[in-house]
Amino acid sequence: MYLYTGLTELLPLHAVYALLMTSHGVSTGELSVLFAVWTVTTFVCEVPSGALADRFPRHRVLAAAALAQCTGFALWTALPSLGAFAAGFVLWGAGTALTSGTLQSLLYDGLAAEDRAGQYARVSSRVAAVQACSVAASSLAATPLVLLGGYPATGWVSVLLTLLAVPTALGLGSRAPGPAPAPVPEPEPEPVPQGYAAVLRAGLAEARGTPRVRSAVLLAAALTGLGVVDEYLPVLAREAGTPAAAVPLLLLLPWAAMAAGGFAGGRMAGAGDRLLAVLLGAGGAALAAGALTGRPAGFLGIAAFYWVLRLAQIVADTRLQHAISGPARATVTSVAGLGAQAVALAVFLTLGLAARWASAAVLVALTAVPVLLLAVRLALRPAPAHHVPPPQPDEPPPPARTGAVERHS
């Protein structure tokens, strides 16, 4: 799973695709429209794809997601035009939807099958750290690739890496043997016999009708959706006077901060609303201040924001996975993904309209407003009882001491 996450995020194109598009005549407003196309596609596919992951083998769903992403990048690289960019975002959005909920559910149910559900927060934080480190590494690799082969070089390398993720995902259908001499089948629940529609209804009912689950879904959705401001960071870096070849290096700051925030989130999985409110308030202020400096040094404040955001996302995901108790884990998690896409769409559309009058610095700073509002909301609401099982050691406990499996995210 670490390898799959790394391959799907180790994309040199990620650091420069906004610059690729603007170099082919795409304006900042059109870029916001393309981001909206990406978000709408993910929005439409989010929950149906989650039910697919509850009904069919999840490793095959992840393979399909990587293949869709690979095809989109190939279109961008081979046919750089507004239409190809839109088609690529549709494919990427479909791949994002297929991954959302599927990866978390495969991880959680795999650990639960071995009586290690209490390790979910720790392992998921490592997955998040691998994701951020992969993006940081791709930013580092993008600079020499742009210098040597231009934007096409970053595109074809990204196509190759996502293509390698397809067999990696299929390999998740079996795991490395422990005491057993041979691999065993993927440790996930049997398909629900009632069929796709029944799984979809069960997941939607739990997300809507269980207060604890509903609260966790809303928090996870808000925190994930607000992170999309990173799509404007390459444009902000150029606006601050950073040379195009050095933009990926500057983007290392927020991505390295996200990796550190992922590790911190695994250790703070039981953090309460008050602590999250304080952190988000400080992070939102750092984001606004960093963006408005108009200088590359402002990315230090942006990096501080992303450290806080990733930490809070890990805490929210942990709460959600612990709260889910029904048979449609991927579907419920995808409902949170649907909410995240709704938040992201609102951000893209708002910033797209404001782009006619405001600079990229002002657009990024505006994103701090909903972050601060969320911090106020968390500080004022009554503290719920979030049960987070204590972290467990990396090795499974001895059989004599194994207890009931806890529901964990």
Summarize the structure.
The chain is mainly alpha-helical. It has helices at residues 2-9, 12-23, 28-55, 58-78, 82-99, 102-113, 120-170, 196-209, 211-225, 233-239, 247-250, 252-267, 273-292, 299-323, 329-354, 360-366, 368-380; strands at residues 174-175, 184-185. α6 packs antiparallel against α15 (329-354), α7 packs across α12 (252-267) and α8 (196-209) crosses α15 (329-354).
Q: How are helices and strands ordered from N to C?
A: HHHHHHHEEHHHHHHHHHH
Strand proportion, as a percent range, falls in under 5%
Over the alpha carbons, how many angstroms does the gyration radius reach?
Answer: 21 Å
In which order are the strands of the major sheet placed? Answer: 1-2
How many runs of DSSP E, i.e. beta strands? 2
Which structural traits does this protein have?
disordered C terminus, 1% strand, two-stranded antiparallel ribbon, globular, mainly alpha, 17 helices, 409 residues, single chain
Summarize the topology.
Layout: H1 2-9, H2 12-23, H3 28-55, H4 58-78, H5 82-99, H6 102-113, H7 120-170, E1 174-175, E2 184-185, H8 196-209, H9 211-225, H10 233-239, H11 247-250, H12 252-267, H13 273-292, H14 299-323, H15 329-354, H16 360-366, H17 368-380
Antiparallel strand pairs: 1-2
Helix pairs in contact: 1-7, 2-7, 3-5, 3-8, 3-15, 4-5, 4-7, 6-15, 7-12, 7-14, 8-9, 8-15, 9-14, 9-15, 12-14, 13-14, 13-16, 13-17
What would you note in describing this structure?
- The protein has helices spanning 2-9, 12-23, 28-55, 58-78, 82-99, 102-113, 120-170, 196-209, 211-225, 233-239, 247-250, 252-267, 273-292, 299-323, 329-354, 360-366, 368-380; strands spanning 174-175, 184-185.
- With 409 residues, it is mainly α.
- A two-stranded antiparallel sheet has the order 1-2.
- The longest helix has 51 residues, at 120-170.
- It starts with a helix and ends in a 29-residue tail after the last helix.
